[in-house]
Design a protein that fits this description.
Elements: E1 7-9, H1 34-37, H2 54-61, H3 80-97, H4 105-115, H5 122-155, H6 161-180, E2 187-190, E3 196-201, E4 205-210, E5 213-219, E6 238-240, E7 246-250, H7 252-272, H8 293-309
Parallel strand pairs: 1-7
Antiparallel strand pairs: 2-3, 3-4, 4-5, 5-6, 6-7
Length: 310
């Protein structure tokens, strides 16, 4: 996982064909001045990866806050050309000063702006899923406590045989209702101490519960065409790990956008230093896109920028 941006690229066996560059937004282009026109980074948002446990957060605060390093759906306010022009200028500045894109606030801000226009609504999906999962686990815990209460009451009964039979029927009915409430189609089993073990799944998440705690959870975009009855890891857009942290997995569209912006940055940086690099080829087994796409995008950006300076 990229500790700078906090995302991993999901595995898709076989790869894809070369993906064409995404279309630009129909917003008039204005030549920017770097210091004035690059949007100032939101100081309340940290784009670097940090440990975040949404299940701990909701338990302690009752809230779920989407971390700053997570790309989530936004409405673009500028054209692609404007954003890419800013990244060119930033690369030239870094070439002069010896800086890099690593941990750079301006770079991360521009990357998020360029990617988020095609991102799924991760903030909404995360909040709704964590609330639902926490409610299910809470309901099951309540079931166990209520079950114990009914068992205690049942053990103290000293009524006639006919009344006992009626109470037993009522008790069984209530316990059955409590046992099934909130579980839906989830395969959850209760241990001897009221702990829960098994799987939780819906069109937005799938994961494992052990001892009444979430061990891992994959989150999915219910609006994605790739989501179906069969849950596949490569369709995951976020992942909660046993270490208690949340990472994101870029979609195919987001991966291409990230590669486009990086290609422009690297090409502009290299041209400023009078050199040309040969980008590494992706391993096809670990890429959502054609393994040669990074190289093709870099060469395209390099040739375009060189022609503009000629």
């Amino acid at each position: 996982m990229d500790k700078i941006s906090g995302y991993v690229i999901a595995n898709a066996q076989g790869g894809y064909d070369v993906v064409k560059k995404t279309s630009q937004n129909a917003i008039p282009f204005v030549i920017p001045t770097l210091d004035k026109d690059i949007p100032k980074a939101d100081k309340s948002r940290d784009f670097t990866f940090t440990d975040y446990d949404p299940f701990k957060d909701i338990k302690e605060t009752g809230n779920v806050n989407c971390p700053g390093y997570i790309h989530t759906k936004t409405t673009p306010t500028r054209s692609d050309a404007e954003i890419l022009k800013d990244i060119e200028e930033l690369a030239k500045e870094h070439a002069r000063t010896g800086e890099s894109s690593n941990y750079n606030e301006k770079f991360n801000k521009l990357m998020d702006e360029y990617i988020s226009s095609v991102s799924p609504d991760r903030a909404g999906i995360l909040k709704k899923s964590v609330q639902e999962i926490s409610s299910i686990i809470g309901a099951i815990s309540q079931d166990y406590r209520m079950s114990g209460t009914f068992q205690q009451i049942d053990s103290q009964r000293s009524h006639k045989e006919e009344e006992e039979e009626k109470e037993t029927e009522l008790l069984d009915y209530l316990l059955d209702g409590l046992e099934n409430e909130g579980k839906g189609n989830n395969a959850i089993n209760e241990g001897a101490n009221g702990t829960q073990n098994g799987e939780l799944k819906s069109d937005m998440y799938w994961g494992k519960i052990e001892g009444g705690k979430v061990q891992y959870m994959h989150f999915f975009d219910p609006d994605s065409k790739s989501v179906g009855s069969e849950i596949k890891f490569e369709n995951s857009i976020m992942m909660y790990t046993p270490s208690g942290t949340l990472s994101q997995q870029l979609t195919k569209e987001e991966t291409v956008r990230a590669m486009e912006l990086n290609a422009v940055y690297n090409a502009a940086y290299d041209i400023s230093l009078g050199k040309r690099n040969e980008p590494e080829v992706f391993n096809a087994s670990y890429s959502l896109v054609n393994p040669n796409l990074r190289k093709e995008l870099y060469n395209s950006a390099y040739e375009r920028l060189m022609s503009e300076t000629a």
